[in-house]
Automatic annotation (TrEMBL):
Keywords: DNA-binding, Transcription, Transcription regulation. PROSITE patterns: HTH_ARSR_2 (PS50987). Residues 1-92 form the HTH arsR-type domain. This is DNA-binding transcriptional regulator, ArsR family. GO terms for molecular function: DNA binding; DNA-binding transcription factor activity. It comes from the Bacteria. CDD domains: HTH_ARSR. Pfam families: HTH_5.
Amino acid sequence: MATEPKHDVFQAIADPTRRSLLQLLVDQEMPVNVISGHYSMSRTAVSKHLRVLQEAGLVKERKVGRETRYRLEPEPLLELKRWLSYYERFWENKLQALKRFVEEDMPAGEPSGPLKIVEGKPEE
């Protein structure tokens, strides 16, 4: 029987350091001493962040001799993607409404580029 993660994905990625750790591990597996070399915090602090990511299922560890290596486990991020995709439709609706507003407000034949400002006033 599999145990439930102690931290959820949302909790785990809430911290900018942990998001940075995930980015670091995207392309390759790394030992903790190499990972900690990328940060100005102690190896112990990096290990604590890795433990939170591991408890959320975002990072897996593997022993190679005396070394522990960490790698990204991206599957739990699908939960985040599904959650965000639901709200994406609201953003898309707002962008479409803004586009309609801008296009309706613009007189025909006017340039669609940005206005040039001269002495604090739009240039005519």
